[in-house]
């Protein structure tokens, strides 16, 4: 079998109603699958105000709004209507991208029908409770995730560091890599626009520290703010440029009143914003990959990041940027101070970062997941059942 024989049922907790790096990667992948001649059907919550048009056929799944985070929805069941749709579609592989109730039911459906299942891991859900005063729940959530992923034939992670963590957590015996690509037409140093910076009241000679991403607390906004406070105390000349939107924007603006907030940017506008920074500061520990880090690297920026999954697979310490112990405010400030004061060090690390980003083309990374699909289907056909837990 090749890609033309694939009939993939993809289950997602957020395929297109809120824009983030994970669902954009899924949409790109579906586009690639369709281009290769595969047949795809996507099952996900939908809203009347989607963030973007979905790739492929999208079927709405029953869902409810997350309490306190109403922009997100939880698909809570595999309804009779969805079961009938699945039966009519006749998939030969199930892909689950979120360990939510719908994802669990999809895996059970696949096992009941003898179909192989591949799960993609997009975020470290087990770390989320610590940002809401519920860190004691992390072992329980990790246990739930382990049960979910062990019932799949294979799981894929977006970085080698995340894959290794999943192995250490005993999530599955078959852990592969489905990394992320970069659109070099959008993200490159040529997008740098000093006139655009000046329009935001940023002088040409002022080093710009960038933040890119959804404005939610689990992205490390508190660590970012505390680190910037130290630079202010040290009287280090800089400007903070925040690109993104989210429910914590008001909190972030109150903490960083001198920062420039551009709101959400996309396409060439996002490329311009990223290339017009001088360095990226990414203190988050929740990413499994870090799309924004790769985008910044492609634009020739050094990155100061938390030493965590995702960033460790992209940033080479002392070469393309700095990797700092999570939460080490003083060390983060030291690294940013060096890049603010030493333009040569900044330029050298940026050049190395751009060279590293050249490895990630979308077609190459998406074909790796197609190859995983074909392998697990072939293994099932040969009677090689998944080495997972015996949970039905």
UniProtKB/TrEMBL annotation:
> SUPFAM superfamilies given for it?
UDP-Glycosyltransferase/glycogen phosphorylase (SSF53756)
Keywords, alphabetical: Glycosyltransferase, Transferase
Source superkingdom: Bacteria
Instruction: Report the Pfam families cross-referenced here.
Output: Glyco_trans_1_4, Glyco_transf_4
Q: Does the keyword Protein transport apply?
A: no
GO-annotated molecular function: glycosyltransferase activity
Concerning Gene3D superfamilies, the annotation shows: Glycogen Phosphorylase B (3.40.50.2000)
According to the UniProt entry, what is the EC number of this protein? 2.4.-.-
InterPro entries reported for this sequence: Glyco_trans_4-like_N (IPR028098), Glycosyltransferase_grp1 (IPR050194)
Q: What class of enzyme is it?
A: transferase
Task: Give the Glycosyltransferase subfamily 4-like N-terminal domain ranges.
Answer: 20-185
List the PANTHER family: SULFOQUINOVOSYL TRANSFERASE SQD2
This protein is called what?
A: Glycosyltransferase family 1 protein
Upper classification of the organism: Bacteria, Pseudomonadati, Pseudomonadota, Alphaproteobacteria, Sphingomonadales
